[in-house]
Every structure is written in C-alpha cells, then in structure tokens.
Design brief:
Elements (H helix, E strand, L loop, with lengths): L1 E6 L4 H10 L5 E7 L5 H18 L4 E5 L10 E4 L15 H18 L4 E4 L4 H12 L6 E3 L3 H15 L6 E2 L2 E2 L7 E2 L5 E2 L2 E2 L11 H9 L1 H9 L4 H15 L4 E9 L9 E10 L2 E4 L6 H28 L1
Parallel strand pairs: 1-2, 1-4, 2-3, 4-5, 5-6
Antiparallel strand pairs: 7-10, 8-9, 10-11, 12-13, 13-14
Helix pairs in contact: 1-8, 3-4, 3-9, 4-9, 5-6
The structure holds 1,4-dihydronicotinamide adenine dinucleotide (NAI) and oxaloacetate ion.
C-alpha cells in the first residue's frame, strides 16, 4: 500500500487529482499540502473528500499539512503548486515565477523524501521537470512531468471521434513540448492495431486541424471556464496508478533523456517512457524524418527556456 502526497492541494487541479487518485486501489494514505494560512480550506477539503470516500466505500487515511516536510515516506509526490496561466498568456510566461517555487519544493523533497517519485504538473511542465531534477538531486528515473500525456489523450479522443471508433481502439502519441512546438507521431498512430496511414480514410483526415485543436485546447478551456481540471486530474491518476500498480505501461511524459531519440538528449521533454514502481524510463525509438526535425525544434525551444530559467534562478538563490 502506498502514501501519495499532493502539493498545491488547495488549487483546482490538486484537489480534483485528490479525488481521482482516491479511486486507485493501492493508495492507503493521502496527504494534502497547502500553503500556511489555508488550514481551514484544507480541513474542509479533507472532510468533503472523506464524505465521498464513505459514499463510495473507499478506505484511505486522509490528512493535511502546510509543511512539505510531512511528505516524508511518500511513494509518490505530485506537485501542482504554482501559478496557472491567465487567458492570453503562454505557459512559458510562468516559467520563472513557478521555477522559484519548484526549486525550493524539489530541494525539500530531495532531502526529506529521497526514495519518492516526484511528479510535476506545474507549468511550463518540461522546464519545471528539469528544475526539479536539478534541485532535488534525484535520479532521473525518480522525476517526471505530465508532459504530452494529456495532449496525446486529447488527440486520441479527436481521432476516435473522426473514425467513429471506441477511444480504446486508438493509440497515438504527441512528443516534445507540452506547448506550441509539440510533435504528433502519426507514424505511431494506430486504430484497432492498424497503422492509421494504411486506412483508406486517412487521406481525408484533417490532421493539421486536429493538432491545432490539441495545441490550443488548454487555452480554450481556460478562456471559457477559468482552468483545465478534469482532463489533467484523470491523466494524473492514470500515471499514479501506473506507478503504484507497477504496470510497465508506456505513456508519454516529460522525462530526462540522455540520447534515446536519434541521439538527441540532455533535456527534459515529452517522450514515450516505460513507467513502473521504480519510476520512469524513456524508451529509445526511431522516428520518421519530419518527426525528428519537429522534435529537434521542440528540444531547441525547451533547452533555451530551461537555460534562461536556470540562469535566473542561480542569480536569485
Ligand atoms: N501539465 C499540465 O498538463 C497541466 C498543468 N497545470 C498547471 O498546474 C498548476 C496549477 O494549476 P491550477 O490548480 O489550475 O491553479 P490554482 O491557482 O487553482 O492552484 C495553484 C496551487 O498552487 C499553490 N501555490 C501558488 N503559489 C504558490 C507558492 N508560491 N508556493 C506554494 N504554493 C503555491 C496555490 O496555493 C494552489 O494550491 C499551474 O501551473 C497550471 O498551469 C494545470 C493543468 C494541466
Ligand atoms: O493550458 C494550460 O495552461 C493547462 C494545461 O497545461 C493543459 O490543460 O494542457
């Protein structure tokens, strides 16, 4: 059985993730961490969630704290702490402000919970994954970000709708930045196990339109309802279940790559990775030429934002 801690639990994504994670059978303890001053809100969240556990028949020890140190002995620590973007902002606009939060958080988790797996949700998530890796001093396998998993799910849903098939029949991946430079892997997209390009209807597929919809999905939801919650919350639970269940699923998350993809590496970015109780292991793979070119561009962009943020962090710390 496992202890899961959620940092930023008073936020929209954090508290919904608490609910989705509570459905995972391996979770025995859940800790909600918020900032000092938010004790009443956290206590209220615990009472409300406990009622939902009672109604569902879930048996989890639930507690809250305003100290990250209480995350000790966690198997998985999920970080949703940080500012979200407002309409009109790019995720990268949040980079420095959130990097300061993540650097401090990762340092504390690195010291107090050395065996945990640290799962970043805070945006820009690829950059935050790199910051967390540096400041926690964890091994790369212990750190990952939500990356392009949610983008891949968004594309999967659009493809299933287009071909009028059940969503479980579609396998697809988007790699690269969780942001504008994301790269769809049509070469790795199958429907019912058949490569999508081998289907006669493929030629009519509005591929560009679909990718544009995925690219702008977060922005559109934020414009309409203030924040994205249900997609990320469910995606977070899938990943936590994959770890705790030692499932060895291959999901597309932000992870440190050495040179696994066409020799490209030394960056944290969305790639397919095998995920189990020991952590996250990027899968070496070869791509089509246009996909490699897109991935290189995405890596270049993330490297630049990451380097700028790291430099600014050095100046203030
Ligand atoms: N990677 C992904 O696919 C997704 C990432 N996100 C990101 O997750 C983060 C949280 O989003 P929401 O829950 O919608 O935001 P929110 O504003 O509802 O919650 C933010 C949480 O962070 C905490 N926080 C803010 N500043 C802090 C600080 N200085 N120190 C410690 N904690 C602090 C708040 O107390 C709150 O608990 C954002 O960065 C957002 O962009 C959100 C959805 C999907
Ligand atoms: O768009 C945002 O800022 C939140 C997010 O990352 C997403 O839902 O993809």
């Amino acid at each position: 059985m496992a202890k899961v801690t959620i940092l930023g639990a008073t936020g929209n994504v954090g508290i919904f993730a608490a609910h989705t994670i509570s459905e995972i059978p391996y979770v025995s303890d859940m800790l909600l961490v918020g900032r000092p001053g938010r004790e009443d809100f956290l206590a209220g969240c615990c009472r409300d969630l406990s009622d939902s556990f009672a109604a569902r028949g879930t048996d989890i020890r639930l507690s809250y704290s305003t100290s990250i140190l209480d995350a000790k002995d966690s198997d998985v620590v999920i970080c949703t702490a940080g500012v979200p973007r407002r309409p009109g902002q790019d995720r990268n606009d949040l980079a420095f402000e959130n990097a300061k939060i993540i650097a401090e958080t990762a340092e504390t988790i690195g010291r107090s919970s050395p065996d945990a797996i640290l799962f970043l949700v805070t945006n820009p998530v690829d950059v935050m994954t790199a910051v967390a890796l540096k400041y926690s001093e964890f091994q790369p396998r212990q750190i990952f970000g939500l990356g392009t998993h949610l983008d891949s799910m968004r594309l999967k849903s659009l493809i299933a709708h287009y071909f009028r098939v059940h969503v479980s029949e579609v396998h697809t991946r988007i790699i690269g930045e969780h942001g504008d430079s994301m790269v769809p892997l049509w070469s790795a997209t199958t429907i019912g196990g058949i490569r999508i390009s081998n289907l006669p209807t493929f030629s009519g597929l509005p591929a560009q339109e679909m990718i544009e919809t995925v690219r702008t999905s977060g922005e559109a939801i934020i414009r309409d309802k203030g924040s994205t919650v249900y997609g990320p919350g469910e995606a977070i639970a899938t990943l936590v279940k994959t770890i705790l269940g030692d499932e060895n699923r291959i999901l597309t998350v932000s992870s440190y790559i050495k040179s696994e993809i066409h020799g490209i590496g030394d960056v944290c970015i969305g790639v397919p990775a095998r995920i189990n109780r020991d952590g996250v292991f990027p899968v070496p793979l070869s791509l089509e030429e246009n996909e490699v070119a897109g991935f290189r561009e995405s890596v270049k962009k993330i490297r630049k934002v990451t380097a700028d943020v790291m430099e600014r962090l050095e100046e203030v710390r």
